[in-house]
Amino acid sequence: MTLALLHTSPVHVPVFDGLRDAEHPGLALRHLVHEDLLARARATGPDAVRGEIGELLAGAVAEGATAVLCTCSTIGGVAESAAEALGVPVLRVDRPMAAAAVAQDRVVVLAAIEDTLPPTLALLAEEADGRRVDIRTVLVDGAWARFEAGDRDGYLELVAAAADRVTDADVIVLAQASMADAVARTATRIPVLSSPRPGLAAAAAAAR
C-alpha cells in the first residue's frame, strides 16, 4: 500500500515522514510537492487548478498509490472531488480536525493566509451538518510573510501568540498544516487542534 501526499510546500515532507515513522511504520509515502498550485489557487481561485490536480493524482494512482492525502487546506476540497474519477480515496488533511472542532460550541479558526478561510469555513459547516456552532476567524498578521521568508520559528511564534490571545472559545483550530508545531509553543488552556496527525491517521486507514 502506498499513500500519495499532495503538498504545496516542501516543509510538510519531514513532518509527515516523522509522523509515519512514529505512528504508521511500514506505510509507504510518495510526496508530490507543487508550490505553484497554491500560488495559482490564491491568484485565480482553487477551481483554476482543478484540471492539473486531477492529472497529478491520476499519475500517482497509475504508479501505485492506493489513497491520496492533500495537505493544503486551500485546494483540499478540489483534491477531494477527484476521488470518484480516480477510483481511490482522496482525503483532505483538515477534515478529521474539522469534525472534532464542530463537536464544540465555540470555535476560533486561525489562518496565516486569507485564502485558507473560505474552504476551511465551508468544511466546518459541512462537518457541523446543521448543528449550530459559533465560528470566528483570526488572520494572523505577518505570519505568512515569515513563512515565505523561511523564518519557521518566527512564523510559529506568531501563530502561538495569536492562539494565546483567544479567550472566549471552546477550541482553537489551526487552519493550515504548517501551523501544527505552534501547538507546543502555546500557553493557552483552550484545546488547540492541528491537522497533520489525525489527517495522516485517516489517510493511512484509507490506504489499507
List its salient traits:
45% helix, 4-stranded parallel β-sheet, alpha/beta, 208 residues, 8 strands, 18% strand, 10 helices
Describe this structure in words.
The chain starts with a strand and ends with a helix. The strands form 2 sheets. The protein has a 4-stranded parallel beta sheet, sandwiched between helices. It has a 4-stranded parallel beta sheet with strand order 6-5-7-8, sandwiched between helices. It is of the alpha/beta class and 208 residues long. The radius of gyration is 16 Å and the shape is globular. It contains 10 helices and 8 strands. The mean pLDDT is 97. Helix 6 crosses helix 7 (117-128).
Number of helices: 10
Sheet with the most strands: spatial strand order: 2-1-3-4
Shape: globular
Query: From the helix content, strand content and strand pairing, which structural class follows?
Result: alpha/beta
Uncertain segments are none
Major beta-sheet overview: 4 strands, parallel
Number of strand elements = 8
Order of helices and strands: EHEHHEHHEHEHEHHEEH
Overall mean pLDDT stands at: 97
- Strand percentage lies at 15-25%
**What's the gyration radius in Å?**
16 Å
Helix content percent band: 40-55%
Topology:
Layout (H helix, E strand, L loop, with lengths): L1 E6 L4 H12 L4 E6 L1 H10 L5 H13 L4 E4 L5 H5 L2 H4 L3 E3 L2 H7 L4 E6 L5 H12 L5 E6 L3 H6 L3 H13 L6 E4 L17 E2 L2 H12 L1
Parallel strand pairs: 1-2, 1-3, 3-4, 5-6, 5-7, 7-8
Helix pairs in contact: 1-10, 6-7
